[in-house]
UniProtKB/TrEMBL annotation:
Cofactors: Mg(2+)
Signal peptide, first to last residue: none
Residue ranges constituting the DAGKc domain according to the UniProt record: 1-134
Any single Gene Ontology cellular-component annotation: plasma membrane
Keywords: ATP-binding, Kinase, Lipid biosynthesis, Lipid metabolism, Nucleotide-binding, Phospholipid biosynthesis, Phospholipid metabolism, Transferase
Coiled coil: none
Gene3D superfamilies, per database record: 2.60.200.40, Probable inorganic polyphosphate/atp-NAD kinase, domain 1
Protein name per the record: Diacylglycerol kinase
Superkingdom as given in the UniProt entry: Bacteria
Family as reported in the entry's similarity comment: Belongs to the diacylglycerol/lipid kinase family.
Any Pfam family: YegS_C
Length: 297
């Protein structure tokens, strides 16, 4: 393994924490004897192109510094290549780091853990999801939650997290069941009505909402959480339980396990790792051992 490590970062992640996290992580790698090259693109497309160039050139590892959006970008560069990924999680949600047990908002500790994993060749091979050409590590969301994202992304005011709180209230007012057509693995298409369908490679999204609490990263299958038709009052009662994962026992919730799923519903956008995938229909498949994750023993 080459001693040159490439860091790709998002300086604005975590309300500016990303800018201050590169230094401590890079210092930890340099103290361990690694050469460090830092990549900051002019935009996401440029950062991805530069990350892919580094992987093609044989970098010893790609280290993503930022939140789940930066991890998602890094996955597009390393998935299926054999190049290991390190994560310095300093974003707002950090669901990928949470699912994999990596340090959160501790850039020096994360850098030291990555250096130790590199020295000891400690790599955890985990599954990823793939929808079209896009890889994802945590959850593919569709339905009520993706409608909240759609509305929040269209809004100019208010700013920050409050915008999505307002969007959620607006979507609650308009809540109605969504007719889905779902195919699991190679089975027959099923027609159902649901409030949302979440496809989990990992357990959580939205900064710790354990929507697919039983998902495992190395079992070759998705956990698919279906929240059936429900009233606003029922959804508001179930929602707080998502943070503990206890919503899975509610009668309105069902869980399926499958290696592939096709989702179809009119007017619904799919989001994976918090990033828009595009309108349904979408087909997602698990790819076993697609990622080599640097994790301290």
């Amino acid at each position: 393994m080459t001693s040159e490590i490439t860091i790709v970062s998002n300086p604005t992640a975590g309300r500016g924490r990303g800018a201050g996290a590169v230094g401590p992580a890079a210092d930890a790698l340099r103290r361990a004897g690694f050469d460090v090259c830092t990549v900051v693109g002019t935009d996401a497309a440029d950062a991805l192109a530069r990350a892919r160039e580094a992987v093609a050139a044989g970098t010893g590892a790609l280290v993503a510094v930022g939140g789940d959006g930066m991890v998602s970008l890094a996955l597009q560069a390393v998935a299926g290549t054999g190049t290991p990924l390190g994560v310095v999680a300093v974003g707002t949600g950090n669901d990928f780091a949470r699912a994999t047990g990596l340090p959160i908002r501790e850039p020096a500790a994360a850098g030291e853990a990555i250096a130790r994993a590199l020295k000891e060749e400690s790599v955890r091979e985990i599954d990823l999801g793939r929808a079209g050409e896009r890889w994802f590590g945590t959850v593919l969301a569709s339905g009520f939650d993706s409608r909240v994202n759609d509305r929040g992304n269209r809004m100019r005011r208010p700013s920050g997290r409050l915008r999505y709180d307002v969007a959620m209230l607006a979507e609650l007012a308009a809540l109605r069941p969504i007719p889905y057509r779902i195919t699991l693995d190679d089975g027959a298409e099923q027609e159902i009505e649901a409030t949302l369908v979440a496809v989990g490679n990992g357990t959580s999204y939205g900064g710790g909402m354990r929507i697919c609490a039983g998902a495992e990263l190395d079992d070759g299958r998705f956990d698919i959480c279906v929240v059936g038709p429900c009233s606003r009052s029922t959804l508001l009662r179930v929602f707080p339980r998502v943070y503990r994962g206890t919503h899975l026992g509610h009668p309105v919730v069902t869980v399926h396990r499958a290696a592939a799923i096709t989702l179809a519903a009119d007017g619904i956008t799919g989001y994976a790792d918090g990033e828009p995938l595009g309108p349904l229909p979408l087909t997602a498949r698990t790819v076993p051992r697609a990622l080599r994750l640097l994790a301290a023993p």
